[in-house]
């Protein structure tokens, strides 16, 4: 990084704006909270509300997928609230407090309070998640060569929180008390609520560094804050109704309609800004669609992979049992190890003028995600002993998926800030998270079909994961074939 690329008077640390590191730690604690509770949700539902009966797996997977989907879907409204009403800083602070309240609620053993707590978490996360990512982009002016590496650093903050959280909360669930597991999971949820409070305090005291970045829009006052608070108060009961009464299948119709509507709005905004911006929006929407497929199968981590780990993977190491939650740390550990390597590979290819385009990186991510399922297919068809497969295939699956994720997810955040219409970046970031939302809800529906009415078996897992392989690899090949067209629509955006 040369000093010429750093704006005059900017305070930096390791070549990047100092504010990036404050946002890094704020996101670290928020992700600690999210991933610290996420791994336990399906297992808790089966243990607490089904008495451990494996017939509860399908319901748990549907609830888990719908929860993740709605977390990301509400990002659209959170992005709008920050863009037009209260600014990014206030949105993050309000979202952190609401999320913490929901995490404390889900410790209650009542199923309806549990679902209400999830609804509150979803509401808060919608205000928090898209807006802190958008603020990272606002630290850099258009054309700043540090932007992509800044997002990569921020992505490391996400994964540092995701790495630490399952290790700590998984240990808490398995070692702190000598009580049934459903009681121990409540300690997990309590810990993650405390983590969210830390995230709030970190941003509260650090936001002065941001200056005008993320401030409320001009003319915004207490009226706008009241509107957002009232909207949040309405949003939580609606989400509770969706989780408790509607279910994942019907939610999918709603999410699909929202995605189509958002795509139309983005196209209209792009047309207003001219033909070039219109083309960029078309390219962005095309990548959103392939992003849906990627996350549909990547997010088996907290549902079908969780039940696989608990019931079909041999976790015994000479009398010590590897905690189920610790599998969730394989992905972030692999990201921390592999992200710098992947970055160096892209850099080396760029110096040789051979770096893949953004669409081809997306296609590579899909293909690698598909190839990860080959490992499980082999284990489930050739390595089953006494109804269980060895420990290493699931670990290797996570590692291969991670390489695919690194080809797709980090550049996705940066891509949105480059391709979105200038007046609707927050809304476009919400669109990115909505595509993840659609994929996540489909992931729960798919995991539920793998478990069936009586719970996951070796045969049902093999059938489901074989389907995953063929669909992902097929989609990746299609994207490779049409990538020149999408790259042309991007008009030189790298």
Low-pLDDT stretches: none
**How much β-strand is present in the residues?**
under 5%
Approximate shape:
globular
Count of alpha and pi helical runs = 16
In terms of quaternary structure, the protein is: single chain
Mean pLDDT: 88
Q: What is the rounded Rg?
A: 22 Å
How much helicity do the residues have?
Answer: over 70%
Instruction: List how many beta strands DSSP finds.
Output: 4
Provide the spatial order of strands within the biggest beta sheet: 1-2
Strand count, sense and closure of the main sheet? Answer: 2 strands, antiparallel
Do you know the CATH architecture? Up-down Bundle
CATH topology: Growth Hormone, Chain: A
> How many distinct domains?
1
Distance between the termini: 19 Å
State the order of secondary-structure elements, H for helix, E for strand: EEHHHHHHHHHHHEEHHHHH
Structural class given helices, strands, pairing?
mainly alpha
CATH class: Mainly Alpha
CATH superfamily: MFS general substrate transporter like domains
